[in-house]
Amino acid sequence: MTPTRTVLPAEWEPQAAILIAWPHAGTDWASRLSQVERTYVALVAAIVRFQHAVICVPDAELEHEVRRHLETAEVDLQRVRFVQRSYDDTWLRDSGPITLRTPEGFRLLDFRFTGWGGKFEASRDDELVSGLVEAGVFVEAEHRRIDWALEGGAIESDGAGSILTTWRCLHQRHPQQTREAITAMLTESLAADRVLWLEHGYLQGDDTDAHIDTLARFAPGDAIVYQHCDDVSDPHHAELELMRRELEALRTRDGAPYRLHALPWAAPVVDDGRRLAASYANYLVLNDAVLAPAYDDPSDEVAAAVLAAAHPGRRVVQIPCRPLIWQNGSLHCVTMQLPAGLLASA
User: Fold this and answer.
1) Domain that holds residue 241
2) If you placed Cys at 52, which of 17, 62, 103, 206 could pair as Cys (CB 3.0 to 4.6 Å)?
3) Per-residue model confidence (pLDDT) at position 118
4) For 118-124, which contacts have Cβ atoms below 8 Å and span 24 or more sequence positions?
5) Does Hydrolase count among this protein's keywords (predicted)?
6) Structural contact between residues 270 and 276, judged by C-beta atoms closer than 8 angstroms
7) What are the start-end ranges of the E strands in 40-183?
8) Is residue 344 part of a domain?
9) Angle at CA 47, nearest 5°, toward 213 and 310?
């Protein structure tokens, strides 16, 4: 159905495909490449059960290798499209297109990607959206370059004009701008009419300065799924408890409180003395499924049940994500959904 106004769709709205970039020896995954490749194979196998996958690879050699991995896992390659483009890393939630539906079709927002505030080299990732447009991945759509730093993981849309985000992240990206100025940029560029700000919430091991997709997510029916911490001895407890209270205070357009779904807290995952960000909020919604992060923790099953309740009618499929959090992200971070109708014929 053609929208009567421009909107940023909610993630649970119909999708054409999921966009990912395959890890390789030229990315930060090099020292643990075999482990993370197994996660990517499981991810693609789960995606193609429900829709198509678009996989970025830097060259024909890696495409051949990835095809071999997927064929071995009996993945339906008829539902996989490869695109050869160079990239710095694989966090396509933050370097991929943020797509609006418009009365005329689609608008591909291409915000400036700075490697999370200049922490990492990102020049090739910053060119990814224009490269995908040039490669003919999308149907004819408006490609709008915006010279303002924003990552997809920093924002949540309910599909009806509300944006959920964190002040910690957006203030870090734009320290000289007021909240009013940042709010105006978000509402104008994302075709929204209100921004809900969270002041609290963070995870150790998170490079993103508190991306919202590690903390709290919109769900259908005026609901929010959030990462809870019930361990009072954990250093996250106080901050996430303050976040929970903020979420309780938020109101829907009708003035009602949101229905809140609390995700369980995984036991600390430590790698070489470094706490990793094992967030269950970093899940991915597909057309008929929810892909849930799994961390080899007893809470994995509890988290899957919470996600099933928050997204009724969708099958929950667990994806092994311990290899991903080694590089400070998880399942949602490495993926970007493409709305239904956006993908061009191969």
Assistant:
1) 15-339
2) 17
3) 85
4) 119/207, 120/88, 120/89, 120/207, 121/88, 122/88, 122/89, 122/95, 123/88, 124/86, 124/87, 124/88
5) yes
6) yes
7) 52-57, 80-84, 98-102, 105-112, 142-149, 156-157, 162-166
8) no
9) 45
Contact 193, 199 (CB under 8 A): no
Closest listed residue to residue 284, CA positions, set 255, 311, 323:
311
Whether residue 191 contacts residue 9, with contact meaning beta carbons closer than 8 Å, is answered with: no
**Tell me, what's the pLDDT at 284?**
98
CATH number at residue 257: 3.75.10.10
Give pLDDT, residue 66. Answer: 98
pLDDT attached to residue 121: 87
Measured distance CA(346)–CA(143) in Å, rounded: 20
In a domain, 6, yes or no: no
Q: Which pLDDT value is given to residue 45?
A: 98
Overall number of domains in the chain: 1
pLDDT along the chain (346 residues), means of 10: 87 98 94 96 98 98 98 98 96 98 97 92 94 97 98 98 98 98 98 98 94 98 98 97 98 97 97 94 98 98 98 98 95 98 91
Q: How far apart are CA 59 and CA 67, in angstroms?
A: 12
Q: Is residue 197 part of a domain?
A: yes
Beta bridge partners of 330: none
- This prediction's pTM: 0.97
Burial class (CB in 10 A: 0-12, 13-18, 19+), 33: middle
Let me know: does 212 contact 165? Beta carbons within 8 Å.
yes
* Amino acid at the residue 301: E
The interaxial angle of helices 60-72 and 33-47, nearest 10 deg, is 70
Order of strands across the sheet that contains 105-112: 98-102, 105-112, 142-149
CA distance 247 to 250: 5
Residue 288 lies in a domain: yes
Q: How far apart are CA 158 and CA 146, in angstroms?
A: 22
